[in-house]
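Amino acids appear as letters; backbone shape is given numerically. Here is one record.
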Amino acid sequence: MLIRSNGARLRLQAVLCGLGFLTTLVLAPAAMAHSGHDHGAPPPAAVTTSNARVAVQSDAYELVGILRGERLGLYLDRFGTNEPVADARITVTVDGQDVEAEKASDGTYAVTSADFAGEGPLELVFAVSAPAGDDLLIGTLLLPVRPAAAAALPADTTAALALRVAPGLRVGGVEIAQPYTVAGVVGLGFLLGLAARSRSRLVPVTSLALIAVLATTAYAFSHEGEDHGAGDAKATLPAGDTPRRLPDGTVFVPKPSQRLLDVRTSLATPEEAQKAIILVGRVIADPNRSGLVQSINGGRMVAPEGGLPRLGQTVRKGDVLALVEQAVGQADRTTLSERVGEIEQEIAVAETKLKRVRQLAERNVAPPSQVVDAEIELEGLRRRREIVRQTRIEPEVLRAPIDGTVAAVRVVAGQVVGSEDIVFQIVDPKGLWVEALVYGDVNPAKVTGASAMANDGTPLTLTFQGFSKALQQQATVVQFAVESPPDNLSVGQPVTVAARSGISVTGIVLPRDAVVRGANGEAVVWRHTDPERFEARPVRTEPFDAHRLVIRGGLAEGERIVIRGSELINQIR
């Protein structure tokens, strides 16, 4: 019985040892493989896109290639202005072979090569030949590395599985387990050794408990500190060739989007210019090329045969615009009626006298000269009667004083107007002025030139005409003539005038559209740092003219600044 009992105990101890060993090798390493680690490295600061690309630039050109499959699309722009170059010839050297780029209708180019299906970096040489100049550009296309097929795991050994899965401790360059996993294995082995030599039943039970605790702890540690949720998604930059703002504050704008937004740049170059002063003005009509239509006596408006003129209608000098039926009082009507009666009575006497004189002249009793005198007297009386009648009923004719466009119509048919009322205003659209008010110590006599900006952003070139010697509302009135005024400019429209005062300043002159407002309200410009990257730069500005500013701080000479499309880039988030 003793021998049989010892044999059973040895078999039980062997089973416990094997079970503990297998549990330690399989559960603990596999569980520790997830202990406290994340599922990816932090995203790089560089731009993550879905297509491989190459970007090169020189003093003349800037070239960006975007790979889609085995076709490399090329975008060639001028370095200084970011203007697309559509009349170039590009030869690309791929792995020692020259490939001619195909031109597209949208101003881009394309190259197709089987080498683009490879992996790793691929050096490319771009030979550009264009009317603006030839150039040679060299760049490296980083082809995506495709993941290798995973090797098959040995199926006959559990130890091989543990060596391939467990992280932490490295043996011969292979990471097999964490340090605390090794310590657990050593402790469990020590207890199992005691169980093999001890006759006590407590040791085998303790070993089984340790195995259970180790397995449970391993499962618990396998998810400790691990986040399978949206944490990694927040840290990863969105992939794709879409414009977006990067974590460092710069903006990534791919070349296709730059073509769509029509982005243009300019090299910052200091220059000397005259300082400008900002004035508030309004558009007026040229006194020599405008006119007002008024009635002399007033009366009731009567539309002519073609109707009253409409706003914006072009008229010629002398055209009939309206008729004014004059008002006649009752006393005047009575006087006119009496006068007409007297004239008609005289006409009747003159007709009788003429008839009698003709009869005497036919019998040669009276000379023929008496007949002529009687006829003249009768004709004069009839003319006097017509004049009196016309004075009572004939309306006043209003005619256009100049050639131009009807700018104002302030009457309708049947309206009664006075002698001082403005009925029509005629303006020559090519003869407009700007009247501005100058306050302070600015001497209007030193104004050498000016420009203006309308409310809709239309720039106006002005020519100084003169200023008044009398103050109006404590300001001096200065007048400018608008050179080639646009069609949308109207009389009375407010404008902002930038007049040059003759004081010289030195700085970088940029269009007003290049300066935008940042998120904090400060004035910024967008600097073109890389072919597809833009950086906001705070600046200090002063007015130069109506559509340009002088940058007095924040920029360096030679930097590429966005002068068109900066407002759109500023809105990218």
